[in-house]
Amino acid sequence: MGRRDALRLSLAAGAATAVTLSQAGFARAEDGATAQLTLRGHLPPGAPDFVYLPIKIPEGVREIAVSYRYDKPDVPQGTPGNALDIGIFDQRGTALGGRGFRGWSGGFRDSFVISAQKATPGYLAGPVRAGTWHVVLGPYTVAPQGMDYEVTVTLRHGEPGRTPRPEYPPERAKGRGRTWYRGDCHLHTVHSDGRRTPEEVAAAARAAGLDFLTTTEHNTTSGHAAWQGLWGDDLLVLCGEEITTRNGHYLALGTDPGTFLDWRYRATDDAYPRFARAVHRAGGLVVPAHPNCPFVGCRWKFGYDHADAVEVWNGPWTADDELALAAWDNMLVSREGWLPAMGNSDAHREGQDVGAPQTVVHADALERGPLLEGIRAGRSYLAESSKISVELRATTPGGGHATLGETLRARPDTSVDVTLTVRGAPKGATLELITDQGTMRTGTGPRLTWRTTPSQARYVRAEVRHPAQEGAGLPGAMAAMTNPVRLGDEWE
């Protein structure tokens, strides 16, 4: 990178979200030849979110390989050091949401290869066509000293070969008809920053008693076609993506296979509504993930318009989840603005259990459409494992009844009996019935009942918690929780 580029980058820092540097290029070579180019540069603190390195690719290239490295100087305790992500766009361009996307590995890999026949996980196989490609760098955090980087691009010339047609999972599995289905809708494999292969995740899902899962790799669709032979009558695989913007992450859940959703924007860019609509056009749900996660770039800043559900429980129960639970509970008094809760493992590696937690959905079939409909309607509860089953029901003397995600239509003074039944609860677990006013009934054992009226409770939901740790001053970890049953006629 020359002095002029460094000046442009410094001027853009803190103002633009992206900058494109001067183009480098290769000359055409004979079949079998290998050519290599190394680009070096420096990123100052406050660098743009994305730095594009344009590379002119000639005709006759069979394979492109990219590797990179960057320095990691010592920084004061509590100060973020250097972390640099990487990906690539092909000759079709880098426009937001455009067709040129060819892969992203974040900071998980230091190299990748793309050819027509195959690609490194996280990247999409396809011809290496002539034109200007862009290696994209994402300086996630930059040390006070700045960041020195080096990117090496290697071209191998020759016949391109044929790109295999992707084999995507079917939308339906055999299932058990209309019943409860257990799923984990936030999972990672080697196609982003996970350590497990799809084969290992599928085996773990079956061992956890799951009926379905969703592949949600960070900012790439390469995992959609990676499950050949792993689905079956007992396991449905849905497609999706975790979109990791700089102001929070969200799941595109159950989208059409091959649908790419862009992540290169912040809350101030007004791009999120556009891509939320794109998720919906692709048949999927928008689900903000771990909204109170304290890590850089993870806390949700976009608000909850356009969302279909919210991931209240992410992995083993922590203080972050308590905050997400409290924020979610505050939504429930709204006639139109409440969102169903979801729980997912966000599992990346061994030691992070697939299906812990899981979302248990009541659906007409083990099929994409009915499952997404059940999640959107809140006909679901969350559980730490398949050992736990929960039923929450509200009834009136006149025969009215409602369960999770439903509304019990009744006059304000109508007597309503609420029954919570739990199977497989941990030893000593506490059962709670909670309304818009707070916890109204607490007990132990497999069953808890309470009588109320719609004038006393706009909704009822349930929690099942492990015993609290003595002296901790905090409630016990969650074992299961439900979406609400709404009470009264005012929900019309």
Automatic annotation (TrEMBL):
* Organism domain of life: Bacteria
What InterPro entries does the database record attribute to this sequence?
PHP_domain, Pol/His_phosphatase_N, Pol/histidinol_Pase-like, TAT_signal
Report the transmembrane regions from the record: none
Q: Which Gene3D superfamilies match?
A: Metal-dependent hydrolases
Give residue ranges for domain Polymerase/histidinol phosphatase N-terminal: 183-247
- Know the name of this protein? PHP domain-containing protein
Which species is listed as the source? Streptomyces smyrnaeus
What high-level taxonomic lineage is stated for the organism?
Bacteria, Bacillati, Actinomycetota, Actinomycetes, Kitasatosporales
